[in-house]
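STRUCTURE REQUEST FORM
Protein name: LysE family transporter
Source organism: Teichococcus vastitatis
Requested output: structure tokens
Priority: standard
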Amino acid sequence: MTPPPATDATGCPARRREFITTPELSQFALSCAAALLLAITSGPALFYVAARTFAAGRTEGVASSFGNGLGALVHVARDRFGVSAVVSSNTKPFTVLELMGSAYLNWIGVRTFQAAWREDVGVSSRGSMASWPRR
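Status: completed
Returned output:
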């Protein structure tokens, strides 16, 4: 004999509560393997680290690599706490995030052009023109 289904106060069948459980070891290992595969494939982060290493040496390359790893951890933590779901479900936070990212990238671009201009013109950090005009 099976017991009758549980009912709530209204007489409707009670819903089972689903709890988040930890993944099985095989699922966890597969997820780690996929993350490792994505981490070692070439992409913008790898090219950035290589460029920084060639331009400024091993110390700068290692620092860039750690920075990329920290950025990935921030993205994972953000996803874990549901920020991505909130942003994707509402257009206002997404638009604000887009505009902030756009402003940041523009600021980086302007600073890069300013640094290149200073190097090209020969402006020192004190503002004097050391070797201008170059011939």
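Reviewer notes: The mean pLDDT is 77. The CA atoms of residues 64 and 133 lie 35 Å apart.
Form closed.
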